[in-house]
Design a protein that fits this description.
This protein has 321 residues and is α/β, with parallel strands linked by helices. It is built from 11 helices and 10 strands. Strands 3-2-1-4-5 form a 5-stranded parallel β-sheet, with helices on both faces. Strands 6, 7, 8, 9 and 10 form a 5-stranded mixed β-sheet that branches. The longest helix has 24 residues. The structure holds xanthosine-5'-monophosphate.
């Protein structure tokens, strides 16, 4: 597909949607297509666009990897149900936790999540479905980052372990490839997605596995998931670029019910940034930070310490893993 940039300023969403839907429908013809929805902005927009073009001839899967935020699979499926789009949730939690078991190195953890997603889960769905068309929410920034070597791999066939020569006939459709994030958000709004989706803050592909320092276990995910839900709820009105809760690996002494408790530490990060390349901690009011700490220590079992990161990026990165 054409990868000439269309800036958000010059983007005419109505024409864009009509043209892309027509292109998708013509390419797929009488066949059908498949895609994986993550709930992020790009995959949500491409899912709705694909369904406008193909209706039920697009089969959309939401792969529940067990490391998502609170109620994520159900709430995303509910948003799409309201829009008349059926999403099939695939429970693959055990596969992801098995792949993450024993891993502590950040890159190995990222790789385990990526490999399990593509090779173990999605590749099987693609093959079983018989679909020859894959719909992908790739945007121009993804291509730039692949070319610059920032992202390891963009070739989806390679990710899926499909050799296009051998498995003749597979085609990838990337209708958003001319847009950047601001353009994708505009298309999402024009398609009728709710602002809670098209204005969503960034969230990493490796999901909450990126928010647990050290080995990822279902128990640790549960802790960071609860802390994340409280953090996102309390910081929703800050206009920050991104906010997050991180579970540390080491414990610190605290006290609970009059007894010493060697407990868990949660670190909060909240960033002001334009494009994630540089970032500064948001100047949150002391009272808000204090309330946040009260809620996390009061509601998340085992947490005795809550800190707020004050370092800028660089030298920090936004995520801790
Ligand atoms: P860093 O930590 O590199 O993050 O300062 C910059 C932005 O990228 C997001 N991020 C990721 N997104 N997979 C993703 O899809 C990843 O492995 C990943 N690591 C970081 C991060 O949330 C921030 O918005």
């Amino acid at each position: 597909m054409n990868a000439t940039e269309i800036s958000a300023g010059e983007l005419d969403t109505k024409t864009f949607i009509e043209e892309k839907a027509k292109e998708i429908a013509e390419t797929v013809g009488d066949g059908f297509a498949i895609n994986a929805l993550s709930g992020g902005v790009d995959s949500s927009v491409v899912t709705l666009l694909g369904h406008q073009a193909l209706g039920p001839r697009l089969k959309t899967y939401f792969i529940d990897n067990g490391i998502m935020r609170q109620n994520e699979p159900e709430s995303i499926a509910a948003v799409f149900k309201k829009l008349g789009v059926r999403i099939d949730i695939v429970n693959a939690q055990d596969k992801f936790f098995k792949a993450l078991k024993g891993l502590t190195d950040p890159e190995e953890k990222r790789e385990a999540v990526t490999q399990t997603f593509y090779k173990d889960v999605f590749a099987k769905l693609v093959k079983e479905s018989g679909a020859k068309f894959l719909l992908q929410g790739t945007i121009l920034t993804d291509i730039d980052e692949t070319v610059a070597g920032i992202k390891r791999q963009h070739n989806v066939f390679e990710q899926l372990g499909i050799d296009p020569q051998k498995a003749f006939g597979y085609k990838i459709l990337e209708p958003l490839v001319q847009l950047r994030k601001d353009g994708v958000r505009k298309v999402g709004e024009a398609l009728g997605l709710p602002p809670s989706i098209y204005q969503r803050m960034p969230f990493p592909g490796p999901a909450l596995a990126a928010r647990v320092i050290g080995e990822v276990t279902p128990e640790k995910i549960q802790v960071v998931r609860q802390a994340t839900a409280i953090t996102e709820e309390m910081l929703v009105n800050t206009q920050a670029f991104q906010s997050m809760a991180i579970l540390h690996n080491d414990r610190v002494t605290g006290m609970r019910d009059g007894k010493r408790d060697f407990g868990l530490q949660i670190e909060i990060r909240c960033w002001d940034s334009i494009d994630a390349r540089q970032a500064r901690p948001t100047e949150l009011p002391y009272a808000l930070l204090s309330q946040l700490a009260q809620r996390i220590t009061g509601e998340v079992p085992g947490v005795v310490s809550v800190t707020y990161n004050m370092a800028t990026k660089p030298p920090s990165t936004m995520e801790a893993v």
